[in-house]
Design a protein that fits this description.
3-stranded antiparallel beta sheet, alpha+beta, globular, Phosphorylase Kinase, domain 1, 303 residues, 5-stranded antiparallel beta sheet
Length: 303
């Protein structure tokens, strides 16, 4: 499935060729698709490895960041995180760098895997508290650690307004876009977060949260790792059931202003996902739509 105009297509045969050229000792191992997100395509390699291939040049920029920072962050976190084991070079048919990580056993967070959503929300909050509490080790909000979700809402107002317009023009979202835009605009009127810059995972959605024995076991895909304001980190809790969301907020003791800024980030990312992927990635559009409906339900409950 091609999602971006400048995407580099990959398949199992291409992965085999890259392995034969650069890691021949792995080339004969079993290879199977292991999912694909908006930025990377993944293949499981044998029992212990995962191959990640960026879809675009822009996505490939995250690989060096992960190789540099994940080994430094991992010992300070209480949940498993990816372990890079190979840095792949561009090869015939694939002009981008790629990577191999240690495979982490676990299932995506969802109704079939999570036993207690309130406990899961508390576990996720504990991970966020740990990550945000790690010293920056000299890192600053610059270069590849300056992803937009660690900035201010106001800096994104232009493209969020554009994507609301795209969704309205489509006319088939079945969402109360006026209400969502009102929530977004209300958050724009709030003061910016006074919190110091922290480490941010940047994309704590259920597909990046692995479960074992009903509890949070690992957090994967640090391609959006950045340094910045913490508000947007909390946005993905609207992808989780209300029990997890409420437990998460309580565990972190998030005040109303922080919560409303986080909700606005959830609106922004959801609306943008619907606008950008509406013709190419229906499953992701469904995820974004479900998030936006959860936001509206919460807002209705507050009235």
């Amino acid at each position: 499935m091609t999602l971006h105009e400048n995407e580099v297509p990959v398949d199992g045969a291409l992965v085999r060729e890259l392995l034969r050229e650069q890691r021949p000792e792995w080339a004969a191992l079993p290879l199977a698709p292991a999912g694909a997100g908006t930025e990377n395509t993944m293949y499981r390699l044998g029992d212990e490895l995962l191959v990640r291939l960026p879809r675009t040049t822009e996505a490939a920029g995250s690989l060096a960041k992960e190789r540099h920072w994940l080994p430094r962050l991992a010992p300070l976190l209480g949940r498993a995180v990816p372990e890079p084991v190979h840095s792949g070079d561009p090869g015939p048919g694939y002009p981008l760098p790629w990577s191999v990580h240690r495979w982490i056993e676990g299932a995506e967070a969802g109704p079939a895997t999570v036993r207690d959503w309130a406990a899961f929300g508390t576990d996720l909050a504990a991970f966020v508290r740990e990550l945000h509490g790690i010293g920056l080790m000299g890192a600053t909000r610059a270069g590849d650690l300056a992803w937009y979700r660690g900035g201010t809402l106001g800096a994104c107002a232009g493209w969020v307004g554009r994507d609301f317009g795209t969704c309205r023009a489509a006319g088939d979202t079945h969402l109360d876009l006026d209400r969502l835009e009102a929530l977004w605009n209300a958050a724009l009127e709030l003061p910016d977060s006074p919190a110091p810059h922290v480490w941010l995972h940047g994309d704590l959605k259920p597909t990046n949260l692995l479960v074992r024995e009903g509890r949070l076991h690992a957090v994967i895909d640090f391609g959006a790792l950045s340094v910045g304001l913490p508000d947007a980190e909390h946005a993905t809790v609207w992808d989780l059931p209300a029990a997890a969301r409420h437990a998460y907020r309580a565990a972190l003791d998030l005040d109303d202003a922080t919560w409303h800024r986080a909700r606005a980030w959830a609106v922004a990312v959801g609306v943008t996902g619907v606008a950008y992927y509406r013709h190419t990635f229906p499953a992701f559009v469904d995820e974004c739509t479900a998030r936006l409906r959860a936001i509206l339900a919460d807002a209705d409950a507050e009235v």
